[in-house]
């Protein structure tokens, strides 16, 4: 690099922020406290919002009772002590149309901040006091006496001693030193073709446009480019990681359409949905390749994922390998085991170990509840290859479990499994790596999946098997507590519950979620159980299921419910995932406003599993706007993918990114919510670029930037390997 060549982001990262004119010792400490050490940190510290000077209301036009944002100049400010030793600051401000009084309580520093002649934009609700216009505790943004029409407002931290205005000045200086005519300019690492395709401005213009725009239109053009850049870097890393694994791992080539598979299809009691056909074909294509599959199967509750899993496992068996299915709980493992045996009943496989020709296809169950002798038998048969499929819980990945040849692994309800556990299971295979299918019943939005699971391939089961009666969802706006006189429609609800039981159906009652303590939650469930038994559901057979019961008692209760010996199961959320009792048609959720959208949807999915019409009752007040929005969403839709989008809107992306993204999230500007379209475009662009140039050798500037943003070991793996 010569001293006149344009700057890279790495160059900016190497320049300490305290070298900047105007950043003294104090401010530099404040910046460090806010995580800003280099010019790169500073230039990617983006404005929170913008003020358009020309769009501000004028004091003369303010209307009492409405919110408004006004550009004002301070006339005078003063403070005094009021009752309780609190400080009240009074600030009189004006524009050329009138005067306004601002009052601040317990913000003594406002007197200093808002000295005479300071220019500021204030935002708040307009009131009056003694006939004068007033705002109490408005939001204040200092705008200084700069000219520009658009003013950038930065996230500021009073504690760090930095105002938005400090940032405006530091950024002006950074841009002046960086961009022409006084600076060397910035290298643009995006391929020309991408700039053309998306009509992006170059990097210098983008940073200038986001920090010092002349118009809001310029901001949006700049933002579009910078958002793409962040998402593109992230997708490049994910796609490269995926390709790197594919290049280094050796997998098995499975037979995907042999006689076993054909017999299995022939004996199915129903036709596959077209979504099942499509996903099975996607999986089959993976299985037939010598590269290990890493695929995520997203499907709503009841969309028929088990069948897709079984079809995948059969491919292993067809080639004389073995398959394993791992479930998050013993109840679910047992349920899967029973279901899979039913689906595979009567199928046989060639038996080289005997001279008797074929033997029945063998499916075993291995959990912590398997007795020791049974366990020994299963383990030895697995090692000898006499067992074809094994269903289990975490017990499956314990050290002593060995397969003769593990071909395909299916992991159900992935969110309860860690990455390490997955790795451990894959290490079970002695030679080539098994193919892995991860299934999840908690759909997340497509674009979020591209980010969170960007190193996996994703298949989506977006169609329900035919013949289901849709579940009616009803919201009873009443307190979930059963104290005192129940409101009328709560009465009505229990009445309907009794009627359904009279018709031979079964009912779940889910007790309030108490995050703080399982003990409290159980206590509350016990109280509700007793109350219902004594009053609302007297004469019915009611059982209780909660997380603090011994495993054996839990099973006994669950089994009794499954056999129909219990009419009603009062439970905490232990029943959330996967439990399948087709005769249950009523789901009552108490204090439903406390649950998240995904959880409510999962709970509702426990009913509507057969031809009987089902109903889900949500009992709860919309105490908070979010609580109300969640309940409305659940009432309004039974589509898990649609609900996932709403959930993303309500909660933001933090919760979705969660664990997998910890420490590797360089999204400062992009939002998975606002920028959904860009995620997909960035992924596509990343795939195309890596196809052309797998190691980014022809795009060394991009490669260098990835290195800057990735963890060192990740960079090493992706770029040096
Ligand atoms: P999930 O995706 O929630 O795991 P399951 O695999 O448990 O769903 O399937 C739900 C129910 O739908 C099961 O009773 C299953 O037998 C049934 N099912 C699956 N596929 C079909 C189909 N193509 N046609 C009819 N019923 C189906
Ligand atoms: Mg399932």
Task: State the gist of this model.
The protein is of the alpha/beta class and 721 residues long. It is built from 25 helices and 24 strands.
Topology record:
Elements: H1 9-14, H2 25-33, H3 39-43, E1 49-52, E2 67-81, E3 87-95, E4 98-105, H4 110-113, E5 119-125, E6 127-129, E7 132-136, E8 139-142, E9 150-153, H5 164-178, H6 192-198, H7 203-211, H8 216-248, H9 259-266, H10 274-288, E10 294-299, H11 305-318, E11 322-326, H12 330-344, E12 348-350, E13 358-360, E14 363-366, H13 372-384, E15 389-392, E16 406-412, H14 419-427, E17 435-440, H15 446-452, E18 457-461, E19 471-476, H16 488-502, E20 506-510, H17 518-534, E21 542-545, H18 551-562, E22 568-571, E23 584-589, H19 597-604, E24 614-619, H20 625-636, H21 640-651, H22 654-657, H23 676-692, H24 700-709, H25 712-720
The structure holds adenosine-5'-diphosphate (ADP) and magnesium ion.
Task: List its traits.
DNA polymerase, domain 1; alpha/beta; single chain; OB fold (Dihydrolipoamide Acetyltransferase, E2P); 4 domains; 18% strand; 7-stranded mixed sheet; Rossmann fold; 7-stranded parallel sheet; 721 residues; binds magnesium ion; binds adenosine-5'-diphosphate
């Amino acid at each position: 690099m010569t001293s006149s060549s344009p700057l890279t982001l790495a160059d900016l990262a190497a320049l300490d922020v305290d070298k900047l004119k105007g950043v003294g010792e104090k401010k530099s400490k404040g910046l460090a406290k806010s995580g800003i050490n280099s010019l790169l940190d500073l230039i990617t510290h983006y404005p929170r919002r913008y003020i358009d000077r020309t769009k501000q209301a004028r004091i003369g036009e303010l209307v009492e009772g409405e919110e408004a944002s006004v550009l004002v100049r301070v006339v005078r400010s003063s403070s005094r002590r009021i009752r309780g030793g609190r400080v009240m600051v009074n600030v009189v401000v004006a524009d050329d149309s009138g005067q306004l009084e601002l009052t601040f309580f317990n913000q003594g520093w406002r007197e200093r901040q808002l000295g005479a002649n300071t220019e500021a934009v204030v935002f708040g609700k307009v009131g009056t006091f003694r006939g004068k216009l007033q705002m109490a505790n408005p939001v204040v943004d200092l705008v200084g006496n700069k000219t520009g029409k658009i003013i950038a407002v930065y996230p500021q931290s009073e504690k760090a001693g930095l105002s938005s205005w400090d940032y405006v000045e530091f950024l002006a200086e950074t841009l002046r030193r960086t961009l022409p005519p006084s600076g060397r300019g910035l290298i643009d690492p995006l391929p020309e073709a991408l700039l053309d395709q998306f009509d992006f401005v170059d990097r210098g213009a983008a940073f200038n446009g986001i920090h010092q725009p002349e118009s809001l239109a310029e901001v949006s053009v700049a933002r579009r480019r910078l958002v793409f850049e962040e998402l593109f870097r992230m997708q490049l890393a994910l796609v490269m990681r995926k390709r790197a694994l594919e290049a280094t791992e050796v997998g098995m080539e499975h037979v995907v359409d042999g006689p076993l598979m054909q017999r299995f299809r022939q004996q199915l009691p129903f036709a596959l949905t077209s979504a099942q056909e499509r996903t099975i074909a996607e999986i089959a294509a993976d299985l037939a390749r010598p590269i290990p599959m890493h695929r995520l199967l997203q499907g709503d509750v009841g969309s028929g994922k088990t069948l897709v899993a079984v079809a995948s496992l059969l491919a292993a068996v067809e080639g004389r390998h073995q398959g394993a299915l791992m479930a998050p709980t013993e109840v679910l493992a047992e349920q899967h085991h029973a279901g899979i045996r039913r689906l595979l009943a009567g199928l046989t496989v060639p038996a080289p170990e005997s001279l008797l020709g074929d033997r029945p296809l063998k499916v075993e169950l291995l959990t912590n509840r398997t007795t020791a002798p049974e366990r020994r038998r299963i383990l030895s048969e697995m090692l000898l290859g006499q067992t074809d499929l094994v269903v289990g819980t975490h017990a499956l990945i314990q050290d002593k479990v060995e397969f003769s040849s593990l071909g395909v692994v299916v992991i159900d309800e992935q969110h309860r499994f860690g990455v390490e556990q997955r790795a451990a299971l894959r290490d079970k295979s002695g030679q080539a790596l098994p193919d892995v299918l991860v299934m999840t019943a908690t759909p997340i939005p497509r674009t979020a999946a591209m980010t969170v699971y960007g190193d996996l391939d994703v298949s989506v089961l977006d169609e329900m098997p035919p013949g289901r009666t849709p579940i009616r969802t009803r919201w009873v706006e009443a307190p979930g507590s059963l104290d005192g006189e129940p409101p009328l429609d709560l009465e009505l609800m229990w009445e309907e519950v009794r009627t359904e039981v009279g018709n031979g159906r079964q009912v779940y009652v889910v007790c309030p979620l108490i995050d703080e303590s399982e003990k409290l939650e159980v206590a509350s469930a016990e109280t509700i159980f007793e109350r219902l038994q004594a009053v609302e559901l007297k004469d019915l057979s009611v059982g209780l299921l909660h997380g603090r019961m011994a495993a054996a008692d839990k099973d006994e209760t669950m089994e009794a419910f499954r056999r129909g010996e219990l009419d009603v199961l009062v439970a905490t959320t232990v029943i959330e995932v996967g439990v399948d009792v087709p005769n249950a048609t009523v789901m009552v959720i108490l204090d439903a406003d406390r649950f998240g959208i995904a959880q409510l949807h999962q709970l509702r999915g426990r009913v509507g599993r057969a031809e009987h019409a089902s109903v889900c009752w949500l009992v709860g007040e919309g105490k908070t706007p979010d609580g109300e929005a969640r309940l409305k969403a659940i009432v309004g839709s039974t589509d898990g993918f649609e609900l996932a989008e709403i959930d993303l809107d309500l909660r933001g992306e933090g919760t979705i990114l969660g664990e997998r993204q910890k420490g590797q999230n360089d999204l400062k500007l992009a939002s998975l919510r606002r920028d959904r379209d860009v995620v997909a475009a960035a992924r596509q662009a990343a795939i195309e670029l890596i196809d052309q140039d797998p190691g980014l050798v022809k795009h060394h500037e991009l490669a260098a930037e990835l290195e800057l943003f990735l963890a060192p070991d990740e960079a090493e793996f992706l770029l040096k390997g």
